[in-house]
Amino acid sequence: MAGKKINGQISVAPQIAPKDLADIAQSGFRSVICNRPDGEGADQPTFEEIETAAEKFGIETRYLPIVAGKVADEDAAAFADLLDNLPKPVLAYCRTGTRSATLWSLSQAETLSVADILEQTHSAGYDMAGVVRRIANGGRTPTESTEDARFDVVVVGGGAAGISVASSLLSRKSDLEIAIIDPADVHYYQPGWTMVGGGVFEASDTAKTMASLIPRGVHWIKSAVAAFEPKDNAVILDGCRVVKYGRLVVCPGLKLDWHRIEGLVETLGKNGVTSNYRYDLAPYTWRLVQEMQAGRALFTQPPMPIKCAGAPQKAMYLSADHWVRTARLGEIDIQFMNAGGVLFGVKDYVPALMDYVKRYGVSLNFFHNLIAIDGPAKKATFEVIAPGQEPLQVGVEFDMMHVTPPQIAPDFIRVSPLADSAGWVDVDQATLRHKTHDNIWSLGDVMNAPNAKTAAAARKQAPVVAENVVSDIRGHSATAQYDGYGSCPLTVERGKIVLAEFGYGGTLLPSFPRWLVDGTRPTRTAWLLKERILPPVYWRAMLRGKEWMAKPEKVSAA
């Protein structure tokens, strides 16, 4: 009887018997808390029987009985005191373990985030959705009303997807009451960070205040989301405020999981370790490229999915091009460390990319996943898992290293009722409507449709979602569908780009006639598009609901 582990200090269990204490002691537990009142069940051992058996093994016991369904605020406080003072690890039990898991959740509400609490209890097999408002309220029962605000449409996330979809909604139905929930002060044009790392853009050109971009007439709720209650059409904010909605659009982006790589956080921005995936580090990339005279440069790519699958290569090509222009390439060993097995997922673009791989003398290392970095020693450790071979770890020394971090759905999404088994919002890939909850849609990097996670994809998705939400409000079925479009302008050299545009299944979806832009080969026209045209299109069109080359495709007749 080892119980169900919540973390290293606490496990919870259904009713235990005196004979279980030997196994409990053998499992290393030093304390037991009983949360089930004596006499609740006819065949239930008393606490005194458990206490007597525990004494034989030197295990401390405490009795904190809770009536089922009636965990009071003071009970959670008492449980917290017990956890503070009892020897660890602790096993808490009741009839099923739920009361014990609830007590732990409420007792930790002021020290852990709602997402952390929900994730740890979920991993132990307990659903704390019923007390999520109390957790968000610091473990205390909310005294305010059950509704602090209500809107026709609530948009979670104020990034490219969120602001674009809000603008597209207003352009279709101007009387909608819309709210965007996002705690950030600054909005970033993230596609520009590759160009910052290549010395083309200034970092400051990729940032604007959030307040300046929220569409006129849209309410901005400057807060973080703690949890979702789709059965009540409610979003719970940090601090337990409750926002109700008629329709919900979920697009908070994804989470860059820097901590997944041992030693990475400690060395980012120094010791030659950088990443264009962070606003403040992209200028450091360019500094390293300029300063490097000789040695080894590593460029990493983690397992999919990631934001802009070509970004790891873009950094590599622009760096190599600079070393060509400054006559240093011959002194620099460029290594591309890719956790996957192919250079690019759409084969039509690979020949052009391979030409540049050969031109720059890049060594391709597939199935190499970065797991640790020793910054001061300038050594990276990769786990190599090639098909048909035994896994192994290899250490690689470096002088400069561009890291693309692992990427996952945000914590509050992964533990929510909206997520699929992998943690992404579960949508129909054509309509982008949630598969279970009819009044919820999702777009951008957070949803699970099998498309590339790019700003260009969000540009096409926003009108689809807006069209379908408004159609639903008017009592009609979905009228627009998304074809999986994504774009990845691969900056193979300064002044030339391989403009990869594709949809579901790798189908090529070029926006321009081939005589103007042949996406399968590098062109100066595509570079002009990336450098001069797309930034103003982003700021002045996409975010303002002007759907330039992004009109939604109508649902085809069955």
Report on this structure.
This protein has three domains: about 5-135, Protein tyrosine phosphatase superfamily (Protein-Tyrosine Phosphatase, Chain A), CATH 3.90.190.10; about 150-255 and about 410-555, FAD/NAD(P)-binding domain (3-Layer(bba) Sandwich); about 260-405, FAD/NAD(P)-binding domain (3-Layer(bba) Sandwich), CATH 3.50.50.60. Helices cover about 25% and strands about 20% of the residues. The mean pLDDT is about 95. A hairpin with a 4-residue loop joins strand 19 and strand 20. The longest helix has 19 residues, at about 455-475. It has 15 helices and 28 strands. With about 550 residues, it is an alpha/beta fold.
Key attributes of the depicted protein:
5-stranded mixed sheet; 558 residues; 28 strands; oxidoreductase; Protein-Tyrosine Phosphatase, Chain A; FAD/NAD(P)-binding domain; FAD/NAD-binding_dom; globular; alpha/beta
Task: Compute the number of strand runs.
Answer: 28
CATH architecture of the largest domain: 3-Layer(bba) Sandwich
Largest sheet: 7 strands, mixed
Computed over alpha carbons, the radius of gyration is 27 Å
Domain FAD/NAD(P)-binding: 151-271
Domain Beta-lactamase hydrolase-like protein phosphatase-like: 7-110
Cofactor: FAD
Keywords: FAD, Flavoprotein, Hydrolase, Oxidoreductase, Quinone, Transit peptide
Summarize the structure.
This protein folds into three domains: 4-136, Protein-Tyrosine Phosphatase, Chain A, CATH 3.90.190.10; 150-254 and 409-554, FAD/NAD(P)-binding domain (3-Layer(bba) Sandwich), CATH 3.50.50.60; 258-407, FAD/NAD(P)-binding domain. Helices cover 27% and strands 22% of the residues.
